[in-house]
Design a protein that fits this description.
Shape: elongated
CATH superfamily of the largest domain: Bira Bifunctional Protein, Domain 2
Strand content: 15-25%
Radius of gyration: 28 Å
Number of strands: 16
Helix content: 25-40%
CATH architecture of the largest domain: 2-Layer Sandwich
Number of helices: 15
Largest sheet: 8 strands, mixed
CATH topology of the largest domain: BirA Bifunctional Protein, domain 2
CATH class of the largest domain: Alpha Beta
Mean pLDDT: 93
Distance between the termini: 48 Å
């Protein structure tokens, strides 16, 4: 147990971390290109934030949260999703008083859910999320959908499509909920125990159930799109117009409701086809009342979350080769008692912006070269009695085996020349 990670967690080892860094760099650039700035929120929050924000009828709150009492007897929860924490930070720092919209993103943010571990979704996984506060037009929704679509496409995710829906607002949804309850009442015995509980508290959740028997029941259920009021209908039409103008593949899918209670109007998922069926890569939507529900002003908002592990899994399945960075530019080897000279040269090379290292294990010169090979160093720099006396260093290109002699003062420039 001591040397085994808890179930549902996974180490990111040094041999794999470059893939994360590559992906994070692409995500940062995509977010910055649309005017989004990074926010970093705590790993845990007060439990009440998620009870009020995510919704106490959701599976996340009822079954999946890691909640504990701290030493001050406060109920604390590890973040099960990123939006509620971003809203809390937005309110606590009075960002709503600045020019709006306020655009923020979070990256590699850990999320914790106690559920059966599955491919690309662990009990601790990491999300890239984007949140836009203060923008009511559907152009903001479309901007996020397009950003996610183009980001994933550029990374190499194939067979990607966008599924959108509108789940209305507090004005029109009660009418739909009433119609849905009337329909479901005739099928209560066919529903799973969870959905029979949802029938009274939040019938919309029944549409999101993954149980096959529940999916069969809702096939003939009333469509929420038929119950939208004029404002929601116009907003949804505007969203489709933006997506049509952008010429990306999308479809209206009335079954998408997402698993969180705070959504209003737009909900969307980016889905890819795999050999094992459809897989959701990114999901989000509009939450126009969450800011107010958590004690802030009446401000519209929209955002999405994207699982980093899931994206990496898809890229691996697609055979996408993420460029592996060279670990070292130069490895300094030494003979005899010139360990300190080697150490000083390494520091000088690093000061010039080169990735440099040396032997720290008192290896023989032959073993030092073997280790330099294992580190995939592009160049080796060797110091012996003659080199130190003459104030020079012997540089070897590890691919071509070509060797040159350079002055110690010119070593960094000589290495750069060999790398070019």
């Amino acid at each position: 147990m001591l040397t085994q990670a808890p179930r549902g967690t996974k180490d990111v080892l040094p041999t794999e971390s470059y893939k994360w860094q590559y992906l994070e760099d692409k995500m940062r650039k995509a977010a910055a290109g649309a005017g989004y700035r990074e926010v970093r929120t705590p790993v845990f929050e007060h439990t009440e934030l998620f009870l009020r924000g995510v919704g106490d009828t959701t599976d996340i709150v009822q079954k999946e949260m890691y909640t504990f009492e701290d030493k001050g007897k406060r109920s604390i929860t590890l973040k099960p999703e990123g939006t509620a924490g971003a809203v809390r930070a937005f309110l606590e720092s009075n960002l709503y008083a600045d020019a709006l919209p306020c655009k923020m993103y979070y990256l590699a943010a850990p999320v914790f859910r106690y559920e059966a571990p599955q491919a690309g979704r662990l009990r601790e996984h990491h999300q890239f999320g984007m949140e836009c506060f203060g923008a009511k037009d559907a152009t903001a929704d479309a901007e996020l959908i397009l950003l996610a679509f183009h980001l994933l496409s550029s990374l190499g995710v194939k067979n990607l499509s966008v599924n959108i829906n509108s789940i209305g607002c507090p004005n029109c949804r009660p009418v739909y909920n009433s119609a849905l309850r009337t329909y479901l009442k005739e099928h209560l015995e066919e529903l799973c125990p969870d959905c029979r509980n949802r029938y009274e508290r939040n019938p919309l959740r029944v549409l999101d159930c993954k149980q096959l028997k529940c999916q069969e029941v809702v096939k003939e259920a009333p469509k929420l799109l038929d119950y939208l009021d004029d404002e929601c209908r116009e907003h949804f039409a505007q969203l489709q117009a933006c997506l049509n103008a952008s010429e990306i593949p999308f479809q209206v899918n009335p079954k998408i409701v997402r698993g969180l209670d705070y959504y209003t109007k737009t909900v969307f998922e980016l889905i890819t086809k795999t050999k094992d069926g459809n897989l959701t890569v990114c999901g989000g939507g509009r939450y126009d009342h969450l800011v107010e529900e958590l004690g802030g002003p009446d401000l519209p908002a929209v955002g999405f979350g994207m699982g980093i592990e899931r994206v990496l899994m898809l890229l691996d399945n697609e055979g996408v080769e993420i460029p592996r960075p060279r670990l070292l530019d130069v490895f300094v080897t030494y003979m005899g008692d010139h360990r300190l000279d080697a150490f000083e040269l390494v520091q000088a090379l690093r000061a010039q912006g080169l990735k440099a290292d040396m032997d720290h294990c008192s290896r023989s010169l032959k073993a030092q070269f073997k280790f330099a090979n294992k580190c995939a160093s592009a160049v080796t720099a060797t110091l012996g009695d003659d080199e130190v006396t003459q104030g020079v260093v012997k540089l070897r290109d590890m691919d071509t085996r070509e060797e040159i002699i350079a002055k110690l003062s010119d070593a960094a420039a000589a290495v750069r020349s060999m790398l070019s």
